[in-house]
Amino acid sequence: MQRLLDRVPEWGRRIFGVAVAALGVEHLVCANMAAQPFPARFHAIVIPVIPWIPAHPWLAYITGAAFLVAGASILLNARARAGALVVGGILLGCDLILHVPRMVVVPENWGLRGEVCEMLALASAAFILAGTLPRVDGSARRWDHALANTGRVLFGIAAVVFGVDHFLALNLIASLVPAWMPGHLILACLTGAVMIATGVSIMTKWKVRPAAFGLGVMFLLFVLTLHVPRVLADPRSPDEWSSALIALAMCGASWICVSAA
Question: Contact, 195 vs 160, CB < 8 A?
Answer without folding.
Answer: yes
